[in-house]
Amino acid sequence: MTHARTLAPRVLTTSAMVAAALVLAGCTSTPAPAPGAGNDAGTPVTGGTLVYASGDAEPSCLDPHVGGNYPQALVSSQYLETLYTKDAKGELVPWLATGSTVSDDGLTRTVKIREGIKFTDGTALDAAAVKANFEHLRDPKTASSTGYLALGKIKTMKAVDASTLELKLSTPDNALLESFSMPWVAIESPTALKRSQEENCAAPVGTGPFKVESWKKQDSVNLVRNADYVQPTDSPSHAGAAYLDGITWRFIPEAATRYAALQAGEVNIIDNAQPDTIAAAAKNEAIKHLDAPRPGASNRIELNSSKAPFDDVRVREAFIHAVNVNAGVDSLFFGTAKRSYSPLSSVEPLGFSEESLFAYDPAKAGQLLDAAGYTQRDAEGYRTKDGKRLSLVFPVSTSQSIPAEQSLFQQLQATAKESGIEVKINLLDLSSWYGELFQHKYNLVSAPYTKVGPSVLSILFHSDSTIPAPSGYFANLSQVKNPELDKLLETAGSTKDEAERKDLYAKAQKLVLEGYYLLPLYDQQNHFLYSAKTQGVGTTTYSAKTQGVGTTTAVASPTFFDTWLGK
Amino acid sequence: MRLGKVAYWTLGKIGGGIFVLWAVATAIFFGIRMIPGDPAEAIMGGPGSQASAEALAAARAEYRLDQPLLAQYFGQLWRLATGDLGTSYSLKVPVAEVLGELVPPTLTLAVLSLLVAWVLALAVATASIRSGAVGRALASGLEIVSAAVPHFWLASVLILLFSTSLGWLPPVSTQTPAGLVLPVATLALPLAGFLGQVMRDSMLDAHISSFALSARARGESENGVLLRHALRHAALPGIALSGWAFGSLLSGAVVVESIFARPGLGRSLLSAVTARDIPMVTGVALLSAAAYVVIMAFSDIAERLADPRVRAA
């Protein structure tokens, strides 16, 4: 009965919208606008296949529960949806869920699941389905890393009824809903999850506007429209299914080839656009740019405080004043990257910035180094203390740092030399880079980390994160071990008071910034270029429906429900 | 007596081939394990994965990584000897299956490139011989430049010229013939320069040799001399080099397949190395080594057929 009651208004609204859409569709039969009239005006056209060219690695599994990295988030956002997502203002909004409550002690979280939604295999979405997903994520055989970590505090779970899921937590976790908004915790059909992992990796089944039709390895994933799609929100951006017939998700590793393919009209949208390309595309009217910085941590250089010379805060501060970051960012990124002074991404509402700490000031660097005892210079002009050169090891992963970033590091190396600091940059492949980290063979390091919400600070700066995971990985690369900071992060993660949470996270960020444990650079770069004929590519979220734009997910991957192909 | 020689030769080739394969498998097995870190973490979605202890333990058991190193090594050799290439860590499917899909596109690319390089090299050599000292110097300069051009740079220039500026050819390699033109050109041009250098020299030697002179005296036309005598001489070093060239084409494929977004062995080798996918790296390397061994043997045979002196020796 409840099912029918909630469904009725939906059916009515949907029919009204379909009627409206039909009226609108009628308009398209009027003569096409004159050439050059601009592509922005116009009514959505149904049909056509969007070609997306990705420069990220090809996922080894299309189910983001398995492993859990950004390439998986990008593609799976087209066919899987999450319980929560983020709106244009960066605020958390329910999606496959309709809401959630938490008990006074913070240990029981009740999630209400939206009714009337079906997976593309016909299975209905309900509390039991969500429970099956969480169990799948927690099963060691699934080999989940990101999703597994996100659900770490859930102790037990119970589907109370079809639309109610009750979660018992080991400790209060106010980041849980933010975790639910991440594609790595997306909800899949429980029927499909029962298949073998190989089958599920090849074609996961979700509730999204598209579904996986086929996957040609090293070439493309072929996605087709989910004809029965219902957008899980009370104010859908448009009625019915997606405008596109489908999406061809191509893998084109080389940046220059991707851009050439976009210019040639072979693809409609490319990701991982490089700074020089974005600057070149700005002069081309046929190509548009979407800048969608990733949430979580900013891109930063971490200073390993666990060993000399960075165990001395004066040397850390001196290094930060010795390097001229802004000049490098301006010249190498062509204005496509904005300098950050925060441990958090600019899209994180609780980010805290402190520009004054990071001024380029070689004179001050010199004083600090003198005070720290580096008063002598060797034959090459580097500062020494007790005959030992002030030398820093900086392993750089060539697969994680784009060429512009590697050049920036070289410029920092050059400016540090002027203050008598030697920076040894080692360009390494990903495995060797992790190898150096595991053995603590670094003084400086730059590592990306994407997670929705400020709780990423606990992963990066809590002293627990200095203890390596079974795989050898530890996220606290600056090796901050500060009981005061730990306390701030723990309280911030469990408080129910939003104002207190904000205040605590600000204090925590202030502490790491003032301790000179990191040098913030810019947001994690997430640039897309697309042909101007491609309309309604995600710039914000579904709430911006007046612009006819599509959506990005909580981790800033674009979605194409509202996208259509112009002539 | 003759049969004994052939059998001896064949046995030698097979033995050498097996030795090469064993050496490659051994080098890869120990080489990859010398990189710091745990292979189990590669199975769990790449280095730095934050997999749980249970998940890592399960992966170790499944892929026999919990056994002593030597036991793993001999187990691996035994499985390889019985034709079992194992299961890819990153793709979670049998390596043999993946290779089966990737061999045809790479083979197409390599064979076409080799053919085009031969045709180009012979055409330039023949034309330059007929066009005097200036023409020869010009051709030689061209060959040296094209032999020295890096694949990466050449591919970028070709895309810029033929896709972005002229719009004639697609920058992304599709399964259509048009999509093959740029990747094949990228591999063929440097190779043609290299082959051409060698071919032209021996063609010139033949052209001015006594047997060419006597052919001309018999009334053979200039074209006839080139085609019937000089060409055969030019082909000899070309054949000898083609085995080596094929190997270099496979390494060139790593670059070309990535730039033109073509599926193939080279591209999968690159991603397998990045992902520390040991079974996949081993599979691709063994296959390349086997192909190299077979092609070297064929080039030996072809050389014998083309040159009576080698046969007699």
Automatic annotation (TrEMBL), chain A:
<dbReference type="InterPro" id="IPR000914">
    <property type="entry name" value="SBP_5_dom"/>
</dbReference>
<dbReference type="InterPro" id="IPR039424">
    <property type="entry name" value="SBP_5"/>
</dbReference>
<comment type="similarity">
    <text>Belongs to the bacterial solute-binding protein 5 family.</text>
</comment>
<dbReference type="InterPro" id="IPR030678">
    <property type="entry name" value="Peptide/Ni-bd"/>
</dbReference>
<feature type="signal peptide">
    <location>
        <begin position="1"/>
        <end position="34"/>
    </location>
</feature>
<keyword id="KW-0732">Signal</keyword>
<dbReference type="Pfam" id="PF00496">
    <property type="entry name" value="SBP_bac_5"/>
</dbReference>
<keyword id="KW-0813">Transport</keyword>
<feature type="domain" description="Solute-binding protein family 5">
    <location>
        <begin position="91"/>
        <end position="450"/>
    </location>
</feature>
<protein>
    <submittedName>
        <fullName>Peptide/nickel transport system substrate-binding protein</fullName>
    </submittedName>
</protein>
Automatic annotation (TrEMBL), chain B:
<dbReference type="Pfam" id="PF00528">
    <property type="entry name" value="BPD_transp_1"/>
</dbReference>
<feature type="transmembrane region" description="Helical">
    <location>
        <begin position="141"/>
        <end position="168"/>
    </location>
</feature>
<keyword id="KW-1003">Cell membrane</keyword>
<feature type="transmembrane region" description="Helical">
    <location>
        <begin position="7"/>
        <end position="32"/>
    </location>
</feature>
<protein>
    <submittedName>
        <fullName>Peptide/nickel transport system permease protein</fullName>
    </submittedName>
</protein>
<dbReference type="InterPro" id="IPR000515">
    <property type="entry name" value="MetI-like"/>
</dbReference>
<feature type="transmembrane region" description="Helical">
    <location>
        <begin position="107"/>
        <end position="129"/>
    </location>
</feature>
<feature type="domain" description="ABC transmembrane type-1">
    <location>
        <begin position="103"/>
        <end position="299"/>
    </location>
</feature>
<feature type="transmembrane region" description="Helical">
    <location>
        <begin position="280"/>
        <end position="301"/>
    </location>
</feature>
<keyword id="KW-0813">Transport</keyword>
<dbReference type="InterPro" id="IPR035906">
    <property type="entry name" value="MetI-like_sf"/>
</dbReference>
<feature type="transmembrane region" description="Helical">
    <location>
        <begin position="180"/>
        <end position="199"/>
    </location>
</feature>
<keyword id="KW-1133">Transmembrane helix</keyword>
<comment type="similarity">
    <text>Belongs to the binding-protein-dependent transport system permease family.</text>
</comment>
<keyword id="KW-0812">Transmembrane</keyword>
<feature type="transmembrane region" description="Helical">
    <location>
        <begin position="238"/>
        <end position="260"/>
    </location>
</feature>
<keyword id="KW-0472">Membrane</keyword>
